[in-house]
Amino acid sequence: MAKLTRMQEKAIFSKLKKEGTLRKKPIKIRVEGQFIRLRVENPKKFQKKSFRRFDVGEKGGTELIIARPHGMTTTRTQAVIVPKAKFFDGTKFHS
After folding, report:
1. What is the dihedral sign for C-alpha 14, 65, 24, 17?
2. How confident is the model at residue 95 (pLDDT cuts 50, 70, 90)?
3. Which positions ≥6 away from 61 have C-beta within 8 Å?
4. Is the pTM of this model over 0.90?
5. What is the pLDDT of residues 13-71, one digit of tens each?
6. Per-domain residue ranges for the chain?
């Protein structure tokens, strides 16, 4: 599966928003192997060596990529990575 339909993207965003994992609408959604990556901010807005990746909830589940924006001392979410199995049974989509 290379690309998601607009309806699938909307369903994924709605589910993650309801869970509290994602507050801001993603600027890009990509399917990468067994995962779906939701880019929230452009990586160019962040300091190069400030990126960190960690699990949210159980290991191997949803992950956040956070980083420090240029000129700031705090971090923000740059992307969210969720397992494809959370939304797909084989090739069939479910929300």
Report:
1. positive
2. low
3. 55, 82, 83, 86
4. no
5. 888 888 777 778 888 888 888 888 999 999 999 999 999 998 887 777 889 999 999 99
6. 6-93
Angle at 64 between CA 77 and CA 76, to 5 degrees: 15
SS3 for the chain is CCCCCHHHHHHHHHHHHHHCCCCCCCCEEEEECCEEEEECCCHHHECHHHCEEEECCCCCCCEEEEECECCCCCCEEEEEEEEHHHCEECCEECC
CA proximity to 27, closest of 9, 49, 15 = 9
d(CA 86, CA 61): 9
